[in-house]
Amino acid sequence: MAGRKPTVSDEEILHVLSESDDPFLTTTEVAEQVDLSQPGMLKRLRDLEDAGYIDNKKAGNSNTWWITDIGRQIYDEEGEKNK
């Protein structure tokens, strides 16, 4: 099907970070798991960081991201709504 890919929700991104066995993921790792471009994912991750749901640290040439307590709470609340 031609056209733009459906939007990835914030909850999907928080899910990737929340359910990862690793304590943090790179932008590329998150992007690959939700099939979004790296530049698009970077913008989305920065928006989630601005909201306080995730945090990041530069490690070498990569940004690493992890879910915050606030992000985990939001993610858990959204999961409850969808049950």
From TrEMBL:
Pfam families per UniProt: HTH_24
Superkingdom per UniProt: Archaea
InterPro entries to which the protein is assigned, alphabetical: ArsR-like_HTH (IPR011991), WH-like_DNA-bd_sf (IPR036388), WH_DNA-bd_sf (IPR036390)
CDD domains in the record: HTH_ARSR
Protein name: ArsR family transcriptional regulator
